[in-house]
Automatic annotation (TrEMBL):
Name of the protein this chain belongs to: Enoyl-CoA hydratase domain-containing protein 2, mitochondrial
GO cellular component: mitochondrion
Biological-process GO terms, alphabetical: fatty acid beta-oxidation
Superkingdom field: Eukaryota
Source species of the chain: Gavia stellata
Nucleus recorded as keyword: no
The keyword Lyase is annotated on this UniProt entry: yes
Length: 222
């Protein structure tokens, strides 16, 4: 996906009705020794980092349970859409654990430190509407009979992104992600670097030409 230039947006969905991702298999985990658990969680954390580092926008379609590592997967995505009936939570403390695949870092960056601490300390599960009210998800929708309402909304969101200039979107994502890690003055420098890379693109020239000619632009990602 990272190197396929035809990919514009990635949507993560589940093929299991009622479950986005239920997290680690604790029965499997119970058979591991301490060293194996550490290695397993490190690999899981690396996977989430790989997802977060995808250059194109990513959307998690949460149509059911997103618990523990399942919510960490959703947090690794850029955008999240949830059915109002979905259940989400970093429930690790209820199992004698703590989030180990990015949850302690990505959740506070998403909802703020106070709410993140409350959710992690209590291991509380929240529904899609509660998640929307605290900014954990971008959109919440009533579940439909097919059980894929969040996926359908995620597709609609993806279709809003698709017509936009692919390289500009990638640079926007990079500027935001890198800028959030530094002070605002350094962030402005990062934005300037990303903007400079976009200036010579054919898509920028196409965007200007389309505006002058009062027609929709035809971006090619170059």
């Amino acid at each position: 996906l990272r190197f396929d230039e035809k990919v514009r947006v990635v949507v993560f969905k589940s093929e299991v009705k009622g479950v986005f991702c239920a997290g680690a298999d604790l029965k499997e985990r119970a058979k591991m020794d301490d060293a194996e658990v550490g290695h397993f969680v490190k690999r899981l954390r690396n996977l989430m980092d790989e997802i977060a580092a995808l250059p194109v926008p990513t959307i998690a379609a949460i149509d059911g349970y997103a618990l523990g590592g399942g919510l960490e997967l959703a947090l690794a995505c850029d955008l999240r859409v949830a059915a109002s009936s979905a259940k989400m939570g970093l429930i690790e403390t209820t199992r004698g654990l703590l989030p180990g695949a990015g949850g302690t870092q990505r959740l506070p960056r998403c909802v703020g430190i106070g709410l993140a601490k409350e959710l992690i300390f209590t291991g509380r599960q929240i529904d899609g509407q509660q998640a929307f009210s605290m900014g954990l998800v971008n959109h919440t929708v009533p579940q439909n009979n097919e059980g894929d309402a969040a996926y359908q909304r995620a597709l609609a969101l993806a279709k809003e992104i698709l017509p936009q200039a692919p390289f500009a979107v990638k640079m926007g994502k990079l500027a935001i992600n890198r800028g959030m890690e530094v002070d605002i003055a350094s962030g402005m420098v990062i934005e300037g670097i990303c903007y400079a890379q976009n200036i010579p693109t054919r898509d920028r020239q196409e965007g200007m030409a389309a505006f002058r000619e009062k027609r929709p632009p035809q971006f090619i990602g170059k």
